[in-house]
Design brief:
There is one protein chain. With 98 residues, this protein is mostly beta strands. It contains 2 helices and 7 strands, in the order βαββββββα. Strands 1-6-7-2-3-4-5 form a 7-stranded mixed β-sheet. Strand 4 and strand 5 form a beta hairpin. It is globular and about 30 Å long. It comes from Aminobacter ciceronei. This is PRC-barrel domain-containing protein. InterPro entries: PRC-brl_dom, PRC_barrel-like_sf.
């Protein structure tokens, strides 16, 4: 996926409602997970990503700072994010417990 034409979200747009269910892409545009939920908003938010699993079953939730993700909107208005983390690196993080 070519992200060069996608519009980056502003800090004001980094809200739980807008980021919920966003797909997270890692290196080489690998689909590495999706946003389960968000704690806070703006540049200090913590994004909870469900990593692995199939259709949400067996996924491991991990918390990452929103600053480690580049959220954007594609041509169809869909919100997604890219990161330099791999799926394995996220799976190695501690599980997020609510």
């Amino acid at each position: 996926m070519d992200h060069s034409n996608h519009v980056r979200l502003t800090e004001a747009e980094l809200t739980p409602d807008l980021l919920a269910d966003a797909t997270i892409y890692g290196p080489d545009d690998e689909d590495i997970g999706s946003v389960s939920h968000v704690h806070g908003s703006g540049s200090t938010a913590q994004v909870i990503i469900d990593v692995g699993g199939f259709l949400g079953i067996g996924a491991k939730p991990v918390a990452v700072p929103v600053s480690q993700l580049d959220f954007m909107r594609d041509e169809d208005g869909e919100v997604h994010a890219v990161t330099s983390w791999t799926k394995d690196q996220l799976k190695d993080m501690p599980e997020h417990l609510d």
